Amino acid sequence: MQVALPRRAAFAAILVLVAAAMAFAAPAQADGRHGQPSPGAAGIGDRLFPTLGNGGYDVLHYDLDLRYATSAPSQSIDGDVTIVARATQSLSRFNLDFAGASVGSVSVNHRSAAWTRDGEELVITPKRALSRHRVFVVQVSDFVAVPTEPDPSDFTTAAFFITPDGSATAPQPDNAHRIFPSNDHPRDKASYSFRLDTPSDVVAVTNGVLASKRTRGGRTNWLYVQRQPMASELIQLAVGSYDLTERGRHRGVIRRDVTSPSLTDFLEDKITLANDHLDYMTGLVGRYPFDAYGSFVVDTELGFALETQTMSIYDRVWFVDLTQGVWEPTMVHELAHEWFGNSVSPWEWSDLWLNEGHASWYEFLYAEEHGQLAEDTEGWPDDTGYATLEELMRAIYAHGDEWRAEYGPVAQPTSSDALFSFQSYHGGSLVLYALRQKIGNRTFERLEREWARRYDDESARTEDFIELAARVAGRGVRPFLEDWVYGTETPPMPGHPDWTVNPVEEGAQLLRAPGRAARPTP
C-alpha cells in the first residue's frame, strides 16, 4: 500500500540530492578560530559513554539502502548508507561509529576516501580536507550487519535481533552502530529515508511513513521517510512474515500496528487502545510530534519494551503473561516517550531522567486514574502495589538516599551501568512530583506543554529544563530543582514534612534495578 506523504515530507527524500550539489566545495582553508584542518574527535563528549558519537560534524540526513537477500529471520543486512552532514570545524579526517561485521568502501563527496577500523570506530580520511560550515556527503557501501538471538540478560543482543517471524531492532542506548555506520548519539539527530529491498513474501516497516512500495520479479522495494529528526538509538527495521495492520488516522496521526501472526488476533482488542492513549497524552501535553504511531509486538522474550520512534516495540510477555493493569500503563509509558525522549531527546545520557522520569510520571498518572496503579507498581520498589500516586511517591521517597548512594543523583548517574535504574525511572518521576507540589498543578502542566513545544525536534539538557521551569514558575525553582537532580541527599518533600528516607546502610541490599524498560517480575 502506498501512503501519501505528509506536507513537506518530500524534503527528507530529496535532501541527499540537494546536499550532494552543495558538497563540491573548495578545499578547506585555515580559519582563525580553529587553525589548520584537524581530526574530528572520536567521541561527542558524553560523560557516561566517552567514545560514543563523534565530533567535528553535524548529521543532517541518513539515507539507508538495505538489502535482505532471503526471508530467513537470520538473514544479514547488506547495506549502503549515504550521510549528509555539515562540518563544524575544518576536518582533515573524521569518525563514524560502526561495530558491524564489515565495510566494503567509503567515499566523501563522491571521491574514494581512505578508511580504517579502530575498535568500534570507522576512521575516514577524505582526499580533500573539509571546510568548516560546509555540507558534505559520506557514502559507506556494502556494510554488513548480522542479527543475533536475543538474550534478556544482554541488551547488546537486541540491537539487531532474530524473532520466529523475521528480524527487528532495539538499539538503545549505544548499539545502533552495531547495525549501520552513524554518529551514534542522541545529541546529533537527523532525518532518515529507508530503502529496503526484500523478498516479496515479507513485510518491511521502519520509522516514519511509507512513501512507496514496488514489487517486481519476486522482490519488493520499500521507501519510508522519517522527516522529523531522530536519534540513531530509536531506529526500527522490522522485516519478516509479520502482520501489518493499517488503521487509518486518529487525530491526524497515521496509525499502523505490526504483530507476529501468532499473536495478531489475541492482541487486537489490546493494542487498539493506543487511540485512547493518544487522546490522553495529547490532552495533557499537546500535539503528537510525529506523522505516525503504532505498536510492534514480537513473539519472543526481550525483557523490555522500547520506544523506537513512531512504533513502540514489545515482546509477547507483556500481553501474554501480565495483566492489563501492567501492560496498559506500559503502553502509555512508551507513548509518552514520543514527546519525552524522542521528540525532545537527551543532550547526553546523564539526562536520561528527562526521558524515563517523564514516561514513568505519565504511566503512573494514567494507572491511578484507571484503577491500575496497584498492579502496575507491584514488585517495585518493595514488592508492593500502591493504590494511589501519593502512596507510591512516598515509597519512592523513602529510597531516595539509598538510590543516590547506589546510582548517583538523578541527573548524574555514577556510570553507564547505573543508567537504567530505579533512579532514572522512579527517582525521575519523584522529581516531577516534588516540582508539582512546589509550583501547583496548573503551572506544572503549563511547564510540561512548553517543554515539549520549545524543544521539539531538539536535544535538551537538564539545565534547559531547570531554566525553563524557573522562567515559567519563578526564580526560586532553580535552587529547588538543582537540589533534587544534583544533590547527594534527598531534599524535603513540599507538602509532606512527615516523609522520611531510609538510612543508606539498611537498604542498600534491597535495591534492584528494573533494566532498560520498566517491567516488574511476573
Tally of separate domains: 2
Q: How confident overall, as mean pLDDT?
A: 92
Number of helices: 14
The best one-word shape is globular
Alpha carbon gap, first and last residue: 39 Å
Gross CATH architecture of the largest domain: Sandwich
Descriptive report:
This protein is an alpha/beta fold and 522 residues long. It folds into two domains: 1-241, tricorn interacting facor f3 domain (Immunoglobulin-like); 345-510, Neutral Protease, domain 2 (Orthogonal Bundle). It contains 14 helices and 23 strands. It has helices spanning 10-23, 264-271, 274-285, 316-320, 324-336, 353-369, 373-376, 389-398, 400-407, 422-439, 441-454, 462-473, 477-486, 504-507; strands at 38-39, 57-67, 77-87, 91-97, 105-108, 111-112, 114-118, 121-125, 135-145, 160-162, 166-169, 190-199, 203-206, 209-216, 219-230, 237-240, 243-250, 253-259, 292-293, 295-298, 312-315, 344-346, 458-460. Helix 6 crosses helix 10 (422-439), helix 10 (422-439) runs antiparallel to helix 13 (477-486) and helix 12 (462-473) runs antiparallel to helix 13 (477-486). The longest helix is centred in the C-terminal third of the chain and has 18 residues, at 422-439. The relative contact order is 0.10.
